[in-house]
Write a structure and sequence with these properties.
Elements lengths: L1 H20 L3 H8 L14 E7 L8 E7 L5 E7 L7 E8 L5 H21 L3 E5 L17 E2 L10 E2 L5 H13 L4 E11 L1 H10 L6 E5 L17 E2 L2 E2 L4 H7 L2 H9 L5 E6 L5 H13 L4 E6 L21 H18 L8
Parallel strand pairs: 4-5, 4-8, 8-9, 9-12, 12-13
Antiparallel strand pairs: 1-2, 2-3, 3-5, 6-7, 10-11
Helix pairs in contact: 4-5, 6-8
Length: 346
Amino acid sequence: MKLRMALTIAALSVLLAALLTAPHLSLLAHAQLSTGKPPAESIATHGYVVASKPIKSSAIPAEYTLVLTRDEIYVPIAIRKPEGKGPFPVITMASGEGREGMKKVEQLTERLAQMQERMLARGYVVATINYRNEIPYEYEHAKPPQNLPDSISGERRMLKSGPTLDHEDLIAIIRYLQSLPYVDKDGIGSMGVSHSGEMILKASSEYTFGAGVCIEPAAHEFLTIDTGPTAPRKDSEIQFNDVEVVRKRANKAEAMERIQRMHTPILVFGRDTDHQQGVFKLTYEWMKEAGKEVAWQSFDHPVHGYVFIYPQKDGSYKPDEIQEKAFDIFMAYFDKHLKHSHDGSR
């Protein structure tokens, strides 16, 4: 009897420990804080311009700015705007993971400068952006953090129910851009390569904006794709070119729940021979099946992220035929969804 009771107590202890370390902890936190003062209101969106730097061979400088996020830290962006008062539509541009802070923003702004000149000439503000690094797999079970009552300090501190994730920085940046006097708040678009393409999908399931262009979006978490040890690999590189292989490993119910919340028009660019082409294609197919406004383009190009046109080694700007075609496609898409009758200098 004593042995059975000891085993029962041990089992309950293990269960309690599991509950305290599992995602259910957020439910306990809510219960513990239910008697505190009302949640603090979020601080109004704002940014600080820390430097304005010239861009080589351009009359339009970049304003390097720190933008407040949901958990009151700042992320770096660089803004370039046409002459005039606007209001102008805006396109944000990002590539890969959030890392290296302002250094990455500076480098990417320089690399994209000549491409951005063409976008500025068409009447767009362009913003090169960055965000915090990701917490792998956290998105698949996390919910957007909410403000909680403060029953600890007796004040009204900004307490959150969970961590802020990298795609929420994109939302914070869009909100900030919408607050600028020269910006058309209904004309915000975002384009991103690879992980930054997935950021657009995640953000648009929680916040609606003008349009998104997802370039080879690595949407593993957004579609809840099993990338575990049984996933096909060549050396260490996962092999998801076949959409049917991806379809079998994705969680359609979870993906569709996110997709159903989306109201932002999305253009997806694939790359025919990319090892992740099946991920890009399935993103499009499930959005289409859900009745969302989505378009698909794919080209056979040797460069990952080919839609972003970087200078040649000698510094010259020489987009190839496919890059020119892709540029015309996504700019026409943005023109359709972001430009309104009041756009332009005045």
